[in-house]
Amino acid sequence: xxxxxxxxxxxxxxxxxxxxxxxxxxxxxxxxxxxxxxxxxxxxxxxxxxxxxxxxxxxxxxxxxxxxxxxxxxxxxxxxxxxxxxxxxxxxxxxxxxxxxxxxxxxxxxxxxxxxxxxxxxxxxxxxxxxxxxxxxxxxxxxxxxxxxxxxxxxxxxxxxxxxxxxxxxxxxxxxxxxxxxxxxxxxxxxxxxxxxxxxxxxxxxxxxxxxxxxxxxxxxxxxxxxxxxxxxxxxxxxxxxxxxxxxxxxxxxxxxxxxxxxxxxxxxxxxx
Length: 273
Known about the structure:
By secondary structure, the chain is α+β, with helices and mostly antiparallel strands. About 40% of the residues lie in helices and about 25% in strands. It has helices at about 1-5, 10-15, 20-30, 50-65, 70-75, 80-120, 145-160, 175-180, 225-235, and strands spanning about 5-10, 35-40, 45-50, 125-130, 135-140, 170-175, 190-195, 205, 210-220, 240, 245-250, 265-270. A hairpin with a 6-residue loop joins strand 2 (about 35-40) and strand 3. Helix 2 packs across helix 3. The longest helix is centred in the middle third of the chain and has 40 residues, at about 80-120. The protein is elongated and about 95 Å long.
């Protein structure tokens, strides 16, 4: 019983709960959490051990970003039901924040991977890589859409998914393999956007799983057909053929100074002939 009835100075009570005593003084000033008593001789605030659970509840709710007004309302009519409801709401909010942070982490990991690729890139290399099926958001842009128009469409589409920043997503252009085979290298007709965890469409565009050809290109844009010719020759020598779409992504966009400095990652799904 002695421990329960013991009174603590503001410094002792603050140390007991790992807070600054100025926090307790502020809580007292705004009427949120008052001391058990005040010494009439020196005006020192004194707190009882019984108040610990109330302070810990306040500190927990503050960690969950519950406003002072909400906490004051809860304390004025404390109940198990009220606490369960309030914590339930905050857990739901926290789950949403955790999901968002996971998506941001995924986007950052992708950008870091691109940065590592840049550090050791061999622009002449063409590789075969195995990939899993992946859903993407796509936007039809029509043939000959200007760059400004493409950016407009990407921004409009990403807003639907409440993306905080455009660069939280990976995006690029698509050109059909049939257009490439015809030599129509200007026929970019779609944009693709990879927003981790954001696919809500009933029928998203699916990148097929299996083997893919991956190459890089850097230089004047009008020379990219030559790079596609090298990719096709590489595949033909291995009795492989591309199909579907080619996906192009600029992987050094954040550090590129001029258009010809852009490093474009080219990826195409392939199959055995």
